[in-house]
Write a structure and sequence with these properties.
Oligomer: single chain
Shape: flat
Low-confidence stretches: 1-9
Strand content: under 5%
CATH architecture of the largest domain: Up-down Bundle
Number of helices: 4
Largest sheet: none
């Protein structure tokens, strides 16, 4: 029989369905962390489910299409779908990184300045690693270097 490791088992934190992180509570308290953990897990599950559906669809649609225009159209659709899946795969990696930051106590803080990232920004983009100001500076620098 296996042993239960008490210290490794986390107690489920109760969050009401209508809970939203608020600025008037301590930043990244247990409720906020649980809120973002659940949001990230749900997002990841949705992406993985979509990915499974795509793979099944691509396998089902492998057929010989005699018309050249129809075949080209189907190949274009397939390429677009695969590109979308690749973007989603990268997104899943970012979600996993955000979940790691939650576990390590680093979630919600800008990787550039160390300042808290606004709750509004995190709610809209829970994988954000920079505050809005740091992100804008980063994008301006990137644009300048791209124009060289």
């Amino acid at each position: 029989m296996g042993q239960t490791k008490g210290s490794e088992m986390k107690q489920e934190l109760f969050l009401p369905d209508d809970y939203r992180p608020a600025d008037d509570e301590p930043f990244m308290n247990d409720r906020q962390l649980e809120y973002f953990r659940r949001k990230l897990h749900e997002w990841k599950q949705d992406l993985l489910s979509d990915s499974r559906d795509t793979i099944e669809g691509l396998q089902d649609n492998t057929r010989n299409i005699p018309d050249v225009a129809d075949r080209a159209s189907e190949e274009t659709d397939r390429a677009l779908e695969l590109r979308t899946r690749d973007r989603q795969r990268k997104l899943v990696a970012k979600i996993d990184a955000a979940l790691r930051r939650i576990d390590e106590g680093e979630y919600g803080y800008c990787e550039v300045t160390g300042e808290p990232i606004s709750l509004k920004r995190l709610d809209a983009r829970p994988i954000a690693t920079m505050s809005l100001e740091a992100q804008e500076r980063h994008e301006r620098r990137e644009k300048v270097h791209r124009d060289d």
